[in-house]
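Input record (one chain):
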Amino acid sequence: MKIEPLFQQDAPQMALIEAQAHSHPMSEAMLSDCFGHLYRCRGLYHEDALQGFTIVQQIVDEATLFDICVLPWAQGKGLGKLLLQQVIDDARGHSAQVLMLEVRASNTAAIGLYQRLGFCESGRRKGYYPSADGREDAVLMDLRLEQG
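The corresponding structure, as predicted from the sequence alone:
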């Protein structure tokens, strides 16, 4: 396994993973917009095949995890944790004071992972995400990053 920077030309492959892993995936165009000086996109490769990725935006000392995505058949094997730990380490390395994210309230596996790595719930956005049953809440979480 290796984690490497992604580039705009990787957006089509990211979109394929996104479509398999999320009920309401970001489009290729939206993913393509996530490249530039405010963003860091990283891919997790196994045997030269992209298995998952992260998208982080950082403005001054606040980093936001926009997306973390792992192929469905590769989930539950620690890859999400590996990616998330890299995001945390990278945010610290770029002098972020806080790493923020939002997650569907129904995504209990992700919430559990975030909590195990020290994230705390900081709020909710009621009815934020579309769902099969109408709408569901977004759980806002953040991790205070100590520099050192």
